[in-house]
Write a structure and sequence with these properties.
Helices cover about 40% and strands about 15% of the residues. By secondary structure, it is of the alpha/beta class. The protein folds into two domains: about 250 residues, Type I PLP-dependent aspartate aminotransferase-like (Major domain) (Aspartate Aminotransferase, domain 2, 3-Layer(aba) Sandwich); about 140 residues, Alpha-Beta Complex (Aspartate Aminotransferase, domain 1), CATH 3.90.1150.10. The strands form three sheets. The protein has a seven-stranded mixed beta sheet with strand order 1-9-8-5-4-2-3, with helices on both faces. The chain is globular. It starts with 15 loop residues before the first helix and ends with a helix.
């Protein structure tokens, strides 16, 4: 089998228009978002207005990271130290980290075979925990039945905050991810759908919530310089009672992002072409189980997940190693030891240990792979052949 020579961490080059815009910011020297010339809106303010328009949201705040956006959302929603906050048992560490950062307690909810939050377990844990906020992780771009989720939360009096780091541009029944609850939290970290190295966006239609988030982000008394902020009068009391916890986005990163936003929908189509090709090949391999995609879900396929339900830990590690030897980098969520960006709830020892038998069963055989746009469709076919080959070899070795 010919090894794959592509690089799973290599993103596409930043567009020339973004490079030119960044150069203009650097030549002007006004990198701080509030360092403006007269009444001219800053680049960050322009990004906020543009992303609010894309998202169909009333308000948008640009900040330092997606994780910071989640922490801001929790604080602005009124989460206090000691509160319980619900979230998926299968997610990445910044999600429980955001909850811990405000002194709250993550209450982990099981997932289904399709890698989305289990609404039956959520219903049970709403009752048992008394939590009044769900920080929903649309982990790896998988959307649950958002209509059913919203109905459950509305009936239970639970606020919804959406972590949309992997679902920027995704939709459920035509409605954009991030628009179902009080707020949507987005990331522009390098491996997300817009790339500024690091960065975050927070959207909402709630004026008081967004005013608190803007002051929390470090606006001082300069909140009127925001491109998609509530009216001035909303800030009259909030500006005095809300602490400054500086985590602003700067003009340099905003300049890099604005031209990319214009190409987002085109790039989503490119990601999905690669995802769909890989998924069609993987679905034909005996022993491989892919999560189902509901017909109401329009996803963004920047990564792909599949399960080997039969794989014991030794076989799972051997599978990862065999693919790596042929140039295919897979992450395994069942590993006891966190590796790189990949971890599971057993290694988050800063939170109370929790029993998630269903989630653990699924993670034990769950594998994950990035799909950078630097890969061609031919590359994706090559990768699928390698995965099929390594599984075939494992099967032969087992038979022997």
């Amino acid at each position: 089998m010919t090894p794959f020579r592509g690089n799973f961490t290599q993103q596409e080059a930043i567009p020339e228009a973004a490079i030119a815009a960044a150069g203009e910011v650097m030549r002007g020297g006004r990198l701080h978002r509030y360092n403006t010339d007269g009444d001219e809106p800053s680049v960050v303010s322009r990004l906020e207005r543009a992303y609010a328009d894309y998202q169909g949201a009333s308000y948008c705040l640009a900040c330092a990271s997606g994780g910071y956006a989640m922490s801001l959302a929790l604080r602005a929603a009124g989460v206090a130290p000691g509160d319980n906050v619900l979230t998926n048992g299968f997610t990445l560490a910044p999600v429980p980290g955001a909850i811990a950062s405000v002194g709250a307690n993550p209450v982990l909810v099981d997932i289904t075979d399709d890698l989305v939050i289990d609404l039956d377990d959520l219903r049970s844990k709403i009752t048992s925990s008394g939590a009044r906020v769900l920080l929903l992780s649309n982990m790896r771009g998988h959307l649950c039945d958002m209509d059913a989720l919203v109905a459950l939360l509305d009936a239970s009096g639970v606020l919804l905050l959406e972590d949309c780091a992997h679902t920027m541009g995704a939709r459920w029944n035509g409605r954009l991810s991030g628009s179902f609850g009080l707020a949507g939290c987005f990331s522009t970290q390098t491996y997300k759908h817009l790339n500024s190295g690091e960065g975050g966006l927070l959207t909402s239609d709630n004026a008081e919530f967004m005013a608190r988030a803007i002051v929390l982000s470090g606006s001082y008394m300069l909140y009127e310089r925001h491109g998609a902020a509530p009216p001035r009068e909303i800030f009259d009391t909030i500006r005095l009672e809300t602490p400054n916890m500086s985590g602003r986005m700067d003009n340099l990163r905003a300049a890099i992002l604005l031209p990319q936003l214009a190409a987002l929908d085109e790039n989503i189509a490119r990601w999905n072409a690669r995802y769909d090709l890989l998924a069609s090949h993987l679905a034909d391999i005996p022993g491989v189980v892919l999560p189902n995609r509901h017909r109401s879900e329009f996803y963004v396929g920047s990564s792909i997940q599949f399960r080997l339900p039969w794989a014991e830990p030794g076989a799972a590690r051997a599978f990862v190693d065999a693919n790596k030897a042929l140039g295919v980098e897979l992450k395994w969520f069942g590993d006891d030891n966190p590796v790189g960006y990949t971890s599971n709830h057993h290694s988050w020892t800063y939170i109370e240990p929790q029993q998630l038998a269903k989630t653990d069963r699924l993670l034990a055989g769950l594998f994950d792979m990035r799909i950078p746009l630097t890969f061609t469709l031919g590359d994706c076919e090559h990768i699928a052949r390698i995965i099929a080959h390594t599984l075939s070899q494992m099967s032969m070795d087992g038979a022997a």
